[in-house]
Amino acid sequence: MTINRRELLTSTSLGVSTFAAAASKLPDFSHYRSEFPRATQQVYLDAAANMPLPKFVAEGMRRYMDFHMYGPGEGRGEYAAMTTREIKPLFAKLINAKPSEIGLVVCTKAGEAAVVNGLRIQESGGNLVTNDLHYAGSVHDYMGRRKAGMDVRIVKHRDWRIDLRDMEKLVDKKTKLISITLVSNVNGWVEDAKALSALAHAHGAYLYADIIQAAGSVPVDVKALGIDFAACSNYKWLHGARGSGFLYVREDLQGTAVKDLSFPGYVRFNYSPWVAQPEGAGDFPYVPSKDAGRYEAGNVSYVAYAGQYEALKRMLAVGVDNIYAHSKPMCDRLKKELPALGYKLITPLDAASSIVVAQARDLKTTEQKLRKANVQVTCTGANRVRVSPALYNNMEDIDRFLAALA
Q1: Which of 5, 73, 161, 244 has the fewest CB atoms within 10 Å distance of its CB?
Q2: 346 near 358, Cβ under 8 Å?
Q3: Structural Rg of the chain based on CA atoms
Q4: How many CB atoms lie within 10 A of CB 387?
Q5: What's the rounded Cα separation, in Å, for the pair 172 and 179?
Q6: Burial, 192: exposed, middle or buried (Cβ in 10 Å; 0-12, 13-18, 19+)?
Q7: Are strands 102-105 and 245-249 parallel, antiparallel or unpaired?
């Protein structure tokens, strides 16, 4: 398969234009398959739920643990220090941000909460606008905030799409934040982030995007899209492990729009007997963080980030635009053939994501068929079947999935 630059730009709308031009011929992805043992043992089409842990991520984690087990000798200390130093710049490059705009968080919701809390929406009498294709865990959090007094406004989808006009009706001069999932885990819907950013900014508000189903799956450019804040965990399309994630906060909004509510770091006790001779002013000199690290609550899983370091190096080398181009024909085929098998698509045909969701007439029977064929997808709700092919999948996997349903 080949894909040209115009086709990729037309198909994504995710700010891909700042990425390197798509190759006229895609890389050979077959060698990646052996790096994901689970993908060779079953038909694993469930990256949107959890990416199987690849060998290179496990190796990075092992090398970091060796540092703590055996000490810094034989390059172990240098490796541990390098992964800690390079993880933010690598992720920043993936989404076209600055390293200073990246913080480390334990999960997506922790990053989202840092933004929502720091904006002081409720205290200022402001409101937050979201929709029902945002992550259900986030909507649950917002319902709790509504019960606590926050003005939370939720747009309901129309035929599994979010109508921009419905969002516009709920945004006003008191809106502080529009909160969305860039690629919806519900059905692969891709939000028009650029339009929502313009809507937010026209009212003096900001745009937050949950990018857990986008980063590593499709090209994401936070600058081109006008996204002010974003967060994601690492265990899905980023090939990483739970307990680790990233927060993006636009540089000029740090400590201003998003207030500091936690103050990570260590104070120096500048008086006797802590020091022989005090230096500078004050007994407790305070030096605050001046980048997105200011929103980090404390220690994170550096073991997981060592593995993430290995994953990001590979993703950047192969190109997320190429990763998306690899999965796109598989998704296109699913969109074409699932209806013929009696499954109703709820993923828009033009959704430029790596997620395809359809409704089953009998979900229990579908689950039984897939289990018998050793096929892993997500079956959720009353009738939804979510399929999410990744870089280790191929058309033979799609063949086996469709055959299991026939």
Answers
A1: 73
A2: yes
A3: 22
A4: 29
A5: 14
A6: middle
A7: antiparallel
pTM of the complete model: 0.93
Does the residue 370 lie in any domain? no
Sign of the dihedral defined by the CA atoms of residues 295, 298, 301, 305, in that order = positive
Which of 347, 402, 373 has its CA nearest to residue 187? 347
Residue with tokens 């469709």: 402
Integer Cα distance of 200 and 203 in angstroms: 5
Residues 6+ apart with CB under 8 A from 50: 235, 236
Task: Answer whether residue 7 is part of any domain.
Answer: no
Q: Which domain holds residue 302?
A: 77-315
User: Does 12 fall in a domain?
Assistant: no
Number of domains in the chain: 1
The pair of structure tokens assigned to 322 is 């190429």
- E strands within 158-293? 175-181, 206-210, 229-233, 245-249
**Which residues in the chain land under pLDDT 70?**
1-24
Sign of the CA dihedral with 100 first, then 105, 107, and 110 last: negative
Strand blocks (E) in 240-318: 245-249
Judge whether 205 lies within some domain.
yes
Consecutive H or E run containing 105: strand 102-105
Kindly report the CATH number assigned to the domain that includes residue 290.
3.40.640.10
CA nearest to 216, candidates 232, 228, 230: 232
Q: How many CB atoms lie within 10 A of CB 144?
A: 11
Strand partners, 180: 209
Q: What is the DSSP secondary structure assignment for residue 228, as one 8-state letter?
A: S
**Is 195 strand, coil or helix?**
helix
Question: Residue holding tokens 């904006």?
Answer: 119
